[in-house]
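Bug #77: duplicate submission created two jobs. Keeping one. Sequence:
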Amino acid sequence: MTDELDLRASRARIVAASHARRRAIERTLHDGAQQHLVAISVKLRLAEAEVDSDPEQAKRTLEELRGEVQSTIQHLRDLAHQIYPPLLADRGLREALNGAAVRSPVPVDLTVAGDGMRRYRPEAEAAVYFSVLEAIEAAGGPISVWVGEEAGRLLFEVWGELAEGPALLIITDLTETTGGSVTVEPAESGGLHVRGWAPC
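Kept job's structure:
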């Protein structure tokens, strides 16, 4: 009975985390990309009006629009990475994790062991990627990340300025739904050391 209750609680947390992420994406679309596109639309109308009356100003407005379009494209790319990163689907864990480390607001020392990380079951890749992403987003400072393969298991470790909180529950749930597991213990240098695996 306890196992069934734990399973129900785990599923409930996954659903809640999914709803929370979807709401965050909706807010990002509304407050970010949508507002950018509205502003671009307004400036395009201004540029149209300026073409005859002030061609030089029209050129300056169009130049500003070029920068705003690039900013909006990057904004949408960042959003796509939160949903399911194209790099993970197309090129695997190494490239996707490198991209996450580059975009991270805190320094990430990333090590991906092995021969370029072959492709794994999509469920295993997604569980490890999003577990690492959760840890990065919850980090209060520099962290280290290691990913590798051993004995038919896709392993990951994250340690550094991490603290107990919802992110650890999400990581646990993401990993256990694949048949893997997670352990959390104090890190030697402070913070936490998270170890997890998913079956390849």
